């Protein structure tokens, strides 16, 4: 197992900075995902680790060995970095069988025939493809092609595994299944993995840590639950799902513990408590994030406790989604999104109250 370390890594294309001052350490055996919208720099960052792009600033190390240092002119070619790579297209050779596709990295490294047979058989068994070794590549399903691509990346026992949107070509059900299966393989092997996706749910389900990127810079790094529940800024908060982002002014601030403070805030037609990571002076503005699943609908005029926030409004829209129902409520502060039980008694036009617990309302600095 190996680690990957990026120090002040950047990549410029002329005057355009695709990646700027990225500092990141992927520990041995860790699964880290680079997450962000198209054009945020995540794939460029992965390609610099792979040696497919040369960083114009900073230093990259793999297994404590410097493989690229812009200042010192060091650049180790991709083929000498001993990395396994899986791409969005899979890049399966159509004129080869499953066995030959997986064996290819070993053949170019001139491994003995007996060793090739042993390693390919072992790796195909790992991805549950051992019975399809002689099948032509064009006869495979999308999920099977993805397994072959993973097996080919693993067969020569790389130091680090790099994956760029490997599940995006699969349908939703197969994408979920293959993601779970791949994560199980990664955990079993304990292989250091750097993964790129724009799919928030995929990143949450697979990762030990998530790196949220925007406009070439890292916005936040943390465990999936931490990133989702406690974003550090509005950009990170807005990236996941359809959160309610409400502008407010701070009236009072008191520390709860070492990691949280309680804020008393006032917005347009509402006021109450929320929580934040850092102390905020009265009079300053914040953005209060409420996720749709954390709000509940009550009858109009319902009372609230000192640990709750409340908005009054009218149901403007309901959408049945199977396991839940998306409800949009018009309030004096704008539209409010709520994920409610699928079979509740909700009708367009009803006057209701929206109630949110203090610990479910998280404030970040205004941008």
Structure, explained:
- The protein is α+β, with helices and mostly antiparallel strands and 367 residues long.
- It has helices at 42-50, 98-108, 113-126, 142-154, 172-189, 200-206, 224-229, 234-239, and strands at 4-13, 16-26, 31-35, 57-62, 65-69, 74-75, 83-86, 160-164, 192-197, 209-214, 217-222, 244-255, 261-267, 270-276, 285-290, 295-299, 308-320, 324-331, 334-341, 351-357, 361-365.
- It has a six-stranded mixed sheet, with helices on both faces. A five-stranded antiparallel sheet has the order 2-1-4-5-6, with helices on one face.
Task: Provide a compact summary of the structure.
The chain is α+β, with helices and mostly antiparallel strands.
Structural descriptors:
2 domains, Rossmann fold, 23% helix, globular, six-stranded mixed β-sheet, five-stranded antiparallel β-sheet, 367 residues, alpha+beta, 8 helices, OB fold (Dihydrolipoamide Acetyltransferase, E2P)
How many strands? 21
Number of domains: 2
What's the CATH architecture of the largest domain?
3-Layer(aba) Sandwich
CATH homologous superfamily title of the largest domain? P-loop containing nucleotide triphosphate hydrolases
Which sheet architecture does the biggest sheet show? Answer: 6 strands, mixed
What's the average pLDDT?
A: 93
Q: Estimate the global geometry from the Cα principal axes.
A: globular
Distinct helical segment count: 8
Strand fraction equals 35-45%
Order of helices and strands: EEEHEEEEHHHEHEHEEHHEEEEEEEEEE
Going across the major beta sheet, what is the strand order? 7-8-9-3-10-11
Rg, rounded, reads 25 Å
**What is the CATH fold-level name of the largest domain?**
Rossmann fold
Low-confidence stretches: none
Structural class estimated from helices and strands: alpha+beta
């Amino acid at each position: 197992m190996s680690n990957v370390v990026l120090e002040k890594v950047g990549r410029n294309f002329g005057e355009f900075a695709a990646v700027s001052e990225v500092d990141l350490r992927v520990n041995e055996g860790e699964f880290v995902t680079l997450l962000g919208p198209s054009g945020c720099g995540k794939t460029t960052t992965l390609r610099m680790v792979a040696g497919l792009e040369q960083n114009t600033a900073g230093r990259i190390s793999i297994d404590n060995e410097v493989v690229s240092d812009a200042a010192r002119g060091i650049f180790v070619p991709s083929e000498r970095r001993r990395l396994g790579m899986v791409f969005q297209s899979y890049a399966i050779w159509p004129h080869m069988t499953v066995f030959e596709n997986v064996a290819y990295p070993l053949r170019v490294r001139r491994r003995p025939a007996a060793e090739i047979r042993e390693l390919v058989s072992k790796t195909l068994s790992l991805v549950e493809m051992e019975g399809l070794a002689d099948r032509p590549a064009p006869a495979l399903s999308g999920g099977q092609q993805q397994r072959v691509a993973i097996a080919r990346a693993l067969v020569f026992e790389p130091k680090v595994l790099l994956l760029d949107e490997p599940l995006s070509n699969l349908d939703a059900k197969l994408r979920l299944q293959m993601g779970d299966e791949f994560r199980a393989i990664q955990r079993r092997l304990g292989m250091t993995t750097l993964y790129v996706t724009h799919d928030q749910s995929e990143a949450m389900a697979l990762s030990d840590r998530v790196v949220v990127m925007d406009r070439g810079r890292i916005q936040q790094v943390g465990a999936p639950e931490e990133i989702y529940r406690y974003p550090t800024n509005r950009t990170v908060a807005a990236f996941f799902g359809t959160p309610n982002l409400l502008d407010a002014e701070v009236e009072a601030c008191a520390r709860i513990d070492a990691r949280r403070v309680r804020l008393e805030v006032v917005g347009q037609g509402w006021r109450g408590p929320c929580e934040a990571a850092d102390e905020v002076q009265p009079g300053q503005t914040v953005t209060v994030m409420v996720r749709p699943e954390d709000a509940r609908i009550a009858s109009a005029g319902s009372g609230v406790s000192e640990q709750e926030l409340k908005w009054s409004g009218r149901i403007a829209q309901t959408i049945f989604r199977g396991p839940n129902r998306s409800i949009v409520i018009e309030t004096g502060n704008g539209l409010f999104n709520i994920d409610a039980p699928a079979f509740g008694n909700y009708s367009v036009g009803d006057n209701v109250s929206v109630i949110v617990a203090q610990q479910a309302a998280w404030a970040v600095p205004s941008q």
